[in-house]
Fold:
Amino acid sequence: MANATAAKTTSIQPRFIRFGDAPGYLGMCKDEFNKTVRPNIREFPIGKQGVAFDRHELDEWADSYIAAKAIEKAANQDNNRPRSERQGATQWREKRSPASTRKVASGKSTRSSGASDFEKALELVTGKKQSSI
Structure:
């Protein structure tokens, strides 16, 4: 049986974040990081060629960026509603076309008129009245 404390692993975030990882830490590409973030924070060497940033300073930059750029929204506004429940989505369903008000059994006409809708439409298009043979 394994010891419970041995199974526990602790995740320690590094204080120094290398240049290659810093854009991903903030969720952006390297070009945007170089243009928007890098001019505003300090960097320092790690080893012979490495460059790093202080994680706390990246967090502070992110906090100030959010404070400056965030768009305020109404507290009662629900931006995650399903599309089918959008406000006014049922308004178009309330209007019915004249054709949809008829009740029809499957395949049987419920009207007793002599000419079918098809025959009337054909007469209008061709200009000829169909014979009733």
